[in-house]
What we know:
The chain has 19 helices and 2 strands. It has about 450 residues and is mainly alpha-helical. The longest helix has about 35 residues, at about 115-145. The radius of gyration is 22 Å and the shape is globular. About 50% of the residues are buried.
Amino acid sequence: MKENTQNAQGGWRTNKWCRAAIPALLLHCSIGTVYCWSIFSQEIADYIGFSKGATEWAFSFAIFFLGMSAAFLGNVVEKDIHKSSLIATICFACGMAGTGFFIYYGGAHQGSALALVGIYICYGFIMGIGLGTGYLSPVKTLMLWFEDRKGLATGLAVAGFGAAKAIASPIMQALLDNLGDGGIYKMFWILAAVYFVMMFVGHLLLKKPDGWHEPQTKEKGKSMFDVIKTKPISNYIGIWLMFYINITCGLALISQEKMIVKCIGLASVVGIISTCSAIFNAGGRLGFSAWADTMKDRNTIYKIIFALSIIFTAIIIFTGGIKNGEGNMLLTVLVLCLIFVVNAGYGGGFPNVPTLLSDHYGMGNISAIHGLTLSAWGIAGLTGNQLATWIVNHFGEWVDHDGTLVNPTGYQTVLYATVVLYIIAMIVCLVLVRPTDKALEAKKAKKN
Length: 448
């Protein structure tokens, strides 16, 4: 009986699902709720007495500091995933609780600059550190446990990050509807406690496989930059640029998604379409990464993502789908296809970055290299939304559409910018990012 108990304990302690997949989902499903910002941003603005535009910077700062903390704390993750996952847990939960406090303070002191700055610091900076370290912490561990299906493993966790919005949005809305006066700050306090528990359990469970370091002894002592220099520097720059452009274009379209849907006459089902977009986002993260596992050169998946994005964007440009979609079933379907394809490609870019980097640079410093690459996400978080907003505000004209001001020409013009960026990304993908050693060996074997 005692021996069976010990075997059972040993089983879960060495099980890749218990030690990698489940803790990764607990961490990513918690931090992924940062994308629920649009659910409560107007509520925050109204409660503290500021414009929605002023409060929007909190979300932009959160994504920026996600990328920057990942870049600067990548070495901490590399050395000790338990320290980094604990940092993530504390920062994310404290950032949420602090955001709730400053919303409460802002409600009692309408228009207080201290309340707004406090939200920037808590939601943007403190939570941003939790986001960056929490996002990175389980990734290498997953690739080590699922060595033969690295893309599937990272896709599973990152899909949790993408699906978090679809899961948490109705819960948050229910809390806001039922907590009465001050529900907005009470919601943050409740969720801070819930996510602390989820992330702390993930932190306790997360563990690298025994003996993981043995195959990596040849890379021991090399710095992150030494490893990057083993390939032409243009190769790494190409990967960084592909990642940056894919996120920038994705955010540019996604940030205008709700208004585009209203332009094509689907205002009554905008919530359903938003949920479908989140499903495509999560599905792209899992599907594209699992598909990439079957390819000799993982970079091929980015060629597919960019090709699909270029094709569907070009179709809507040439048909004027956003301007002419209302009342035209074909154009309405095509615009929805564009939204879903961009969401899937945007999501699919995330899990394939660490696996593509590991194919090029090995596993020795992958957390640090991946962290540096996530700086692209941070910068894109400041440029994607703002690019689309600037275009919409400077092109076309605002018209009343069933009581809502929309700018169909402006949204259509955003596509001209994104299609150019997607084409640049495709050129980078083809020219700068070289085939992996695995791909070159397969090509040589085929010739022989």
